[in-house]
Amino acid sequence: MPATPVQIRLDPQGRGARIRRAAPNPRGGLDALWLIDADPLAPAPAELLTATPDDMPGARRPVARRLRLLHVNDLHNHLADLPEGPQRMAEIAGHVARARAEAAPDEAVLFLSAGDDHTGSIFDELLGWGAEDFTLDPGYRALSAAGCDAAAIGNHEFDRGAAQLVRGIVADADFPVLSANVHGSAHLVPGQHFHAAALAEAKGLRIAIIGLTTRVETRVGQPSDPTLAVASPVEVLAKLLPLVAPLADVVVILSHCGYGGGNHASGKAVVARDIGEADFALADTAAGLVDVPCVIVGAHTHTRLNETGVEAQNLRRGILIAQAEANGRFLGEITLTPGAPPEARLIALGQGGGDAAFARAHLAPMIALVRERMEQPVGHAPDDGLDWNATRDSRYRGECALANYMNDALVAELADLPGGAPDLALLNGGSILAGVARGNVTFGQWFDVMPYSDEVFILTATGTQIAEILRSNARRLLRPDETGIDTAGFIARGFLHTSSGLRYRIDTGAAAAKATPEEIALFGQPVAKVADRPFRIAMTTYLALGSFGERWNGLPIAGGVEGDLPGYDLRALPSQNSGLVYREVLVRHIRANPEIAARPDGRLRITGG
Predict the structure, then answer these.
(1) GO molecular-function annotation terms (predicted)?
(2) What's the distance, CA 331 to chain centroid?
């Protein structure tokens, strides 16, 4: 480390990187913290800005020779398994507290999150959708209390909009929230709400922490924040790493970009999904720019890495890539010791126990807030026709009764929508995450079916355009000869289901490229007779924005479909955001029509296989 004031490069236009001292999380493991802000669009740095000695004293005597990193990723607000299951955040907090209490005098312990701390559990209801219904940010509040030292911004942090993310950061994040490649938001202000990187000091050891966010599945271009954008994580890392690495003894890249690169299958993806620039490319870039130990703490793909020790394929050009699956199933642990190879393992969670005092103080109040809503009855399923056994396979292979129900309910409930009711609805099978078991159905059970934070968009398409959409859809079908695929997992093809006004047949042909939609009828009329008629189509935010890795954005269809077949670009169609929350619309419909039941009715038939 230099014994002189630290120099941070700055480009001639005044953009570039700045550094300032900040207060670390009082429950965390840091003795000092500096925040680094950098413009991801700035050209290569050319000039120098010297930080004052008070900002960053150069002289120090490191006590720690060993660094232990405890890490989570993709928690998705799975803080506790309700109603009476394991208290996962209490288990995490207990492990972190014990690790810090038992640390040797020369060992520093940090606790980090690699992002997607939001979206996926009933606790999301506390976030609300605006200032009027924001209660608290459960993920950030729990992480703060558990002693988190820094967290990356994941793509799902933007699901309820950047303005709502800002409310959560301001109210509940006692740690720095990091992303070096997010920019342009009208609400999320760099240097105020989030930062490109942080320099942490623990027992004299300095750790540079850089946050990166996937550009493939982040919701950009929404009306509420039209200029929000995500720059190339590889290009940004190549600019930033030479600035921060000389300041540190260790570099940690909090990568919410995914394990692998390009089209890659791991974690929740049963077959290859598009993840773009991800951890492999980041490791290759970093390897040529650092001469201190460097690790990638990954996320986004829900991949279980290094469960019982470092796996050879995860040590890329000397840089360890780690990830702890998702949803609080594991706590990751990395140990770095000078002169020794990195160590890593996963600690299984969900076994019960945990820090009881933490659970009482920090989880119990949040559980009390959501329990009443979770247990509210909303409807009744008279039979097993919509349960998971009936749903898991059909959502990718053909007509799906639960998708039929959801699409038809959406159209019916929006019959009086200002600006015009939708004629049709479309839903991708991957948006259905659970079935509806026979018996009374609570809000919490329905939430499990559709946990994503989506609003209702209305797109307009002619009969001809609908036929083109169905042609792309026919190619996305999980074909009859594709056997041995676990349909309980995520298959990133974006196969669509329709409401009852649209009926057709798919001829699977000899290969995906030969699959065609036949006998297309819109409200009983052959599509040729309504070729020029515009139809209003209701769908989720996810679909309207091109469904990212599921490729309703003009890019070749992913998910293992051969032939680089171009996907239809739904983003090209005229659209408007209704402002309605998709799940809330369906819950309203169920409350008014309590019987939750549907059957395949022949709106989609499969032949040729």
Answers:
(1) 5'-nucleotidase activity; nucleotide binding; UDP-sugar diphosphatase activity
(2) 18
User: Do the domain assignments include residue 381?
Assistant: yes
What pLDDT sits at residue 598?
A: 96
Asked if residue 339 and residue 391 are part of one domain, the reply reads no
Q: Please give the structure tokens belonging to residue 135.
A: 């209660």
Beta-carbon contacts of 311 under 8 Å, excluding residues fewer than 6 positions away, are 305
The string of pLDDT tens digits covering residues 63-92 is: 778 999 999 999 999 999 887 778 999 999
Residue where a domain stops, chosen among 345, 370, 395: 370
Q: How many other C-beta atoms can be found within 10 angstroms of the C-beta atom of residue 129?
A: 16
- Is residue 264 domain-resident? yes
Rg (CA), the chain: 25
How many structural domains compose the chain? Answer: 2
The enclosing domain of 166 has a CATH number of: 3.60.21.10
The two tokens of residue 277 are: 């620039």
Nearest to 82 by CA among 491, 408, 366: 366
Burial 198-223 (b: 16+ CB within 10 A, else e): bbbbbbbbbbbbbbbbbbbbbbbebe
Q: Determine the pLDDT at residue 233.
A: 97
Domain that holds residue 478: 377-607
Residue at 297: amino acid letter:
V
| Confidence (pLDDT) at 284 | 97
